[in-house]
Amino acid sequence: MDFLGRKIKPYSIMKPIGKTYFSFLVAATLVFVACDNANEDASPTAPQLPPAESMSAEMGAFPSNGENSSKNDNQDREHFTYAAANVVFWQSILKLQLAVPVAAFKESFNHPFIYLQDEQRWKSSYSVTVGDKTYEATLYGEREEDEIEWEMYLSAEGQFENFLWFTGESELDNTGGSWTLYKSPSEPRAVLTIEWEKEGNEVEAAYTLVDEQADKVDSYIEYGTTTENGFTHFYEVSIESKTEEDYEVFILYNANTRAGKVKSESRFGDDAFRCWDSNFIDTTCSN
Question: pTM for this one?
Answer without folding.
Answer: 0.79
